[in-house]
Amino acid sequence: MGANEIGIDIGTCNTLIYKRNKGVILNEPSVLALETYGSKQLVAVGREAKKMWGRTPDTVATSFPMIGGVVADFEKIVIMLREYIRRVKTGFSPVIATVSVPCRATPVERRAVSDAVIAAGAKRVTVLEKSIAGALGAGLSIFEPRGRMIVDIGGGTTEIAVISLGGIVSVTSTTCAGNQFDRDIINYIRRTHSILIGESTAEEVKTSIGSVYDDGQVDFMTVSGRDLVRGLPINVALSTDDVREAMGESIRFLVDQIRLTLEKIPPEMSSDIIESGITLVGGGSLLNGWEELLSKETGIAVIHAAAPMESVAAGLGNAPDYKGRIKHGVQQENILA
Question: CA angle at residue 223 from 222 to 228, to 5 degrees?
Answer without folding.
Answer: 125
